[in-house]
Amino acid sequence: MDKEETIKMFDMTDYYIGLGLALCSSGFIGASFIIKKKALVQISLSSGRRAANGGYGYLSNWLWWFGLSMMALGEVFNFAAYAFAPASVVTPLGALSVIVAAILSSKYLNEQLNLLAKIGCFMCIIGSTVMVIHSPKEEQVDTLEDLLQKLTEPGFIIYTSIMLIIIFSIFFYFGPRYGSSNVIVYVIMCSTSGSLTVMWCKGLGLAIRETISGQSEFTNWLTYIFIVLLITFVCIQMNYLNKALDTFNTSVVTPVYYVMFTTLVITASAILFKEWEHLQLNDIIGIICGFLITVTAIFMLNTFRDVDMSRSHFAWRTRQPITRKSTIEESAQTSALIKNNTQYGTRNV
Question: Where are its TM segments located (predicted)?
Answer without folding.
Answer: 15-35, 56-73, 79-103, 115-136, 156-176, 183-201, 221-240, 252-272, 284-304
